[in-house]
Amino acid sequence: MTDLVIRALTASDAHLFDAHPDPLGAREGHRRTRFRPEWQRVALRDGTVVARGAWWGGPDDSEPVNINWFDVAEGEEEAGAELLRSVPWRVELEINLPSGWRDDPALKAAAEARFGAARAAGYELLVERFLYRWTPELGLPERPGRLRFGAEPDDAVFLDALRRIHSATLDAHALRAIEEGGLDQAAQEELDFFHWCPSPREWWQLAHTPDGDLAGIHIPAHNPSGPTIGFIGVVPEQRGHGYAYDLLAECTHFLAQQGAEFVSGSTDRGNFPMAANFAKAGFPVAKERINFHAAGQA
Hints:
alpha+beta
């Protein structure tokens, strides 16, 4: 087998990134994504692209925040692993897959080749997630009308609510943050993400019961790819009433009122209560996502 060549791309040869099959339909999912050529890599053998990766970040980020496009040709898992090893950024790897990919032998084989390359490069499975996409023709979810919603300008109030919410959570990213640095780190990471999103701070909302008790928070947001359910969380003492659905319905209505032509959302595959709320609110599963993180690193 001939030697492998890893190339970082530039604006003049960015077209090489497209010189590879797309069996998982990643290109359609990235129609709104803006990639920087210098954060893209290809692996070539005899001049043919056998693996490719796109590291991604927001327009103001000095370094990538994740890898959200990674492909490997059949039999080239080691090339894919070498591609991942070739960069200085050990950031989270996201592999987006069509819904139901496990039932299609070709899709399953393509996915497992990527998983194998990731593991060979020192990445470990973090979590599997459902990705949702609501569009107006599906109809807005019914608002139960049980909670009172309002903006809150003080970040400390949200930080306290996030600590309470994450004190009993099923979210794999929050659990990892708690393991690394406790509830303060988990809450701060969420708050930092809310601020990172290019949507207005004024959109963040608290939800209270008619008696004035805090029920939870919801964060309507825009990420660089469009409108999204940024966060839904119910404080532990208010759980058992189905309030997560109320928050999700309100968040969807809020974004629709801002003119959203679609609303994305996501939850961990193992978070059965939240997955049920997305289904109840009329959010179909659009894709699935497998998140890997670098072994032994935050």
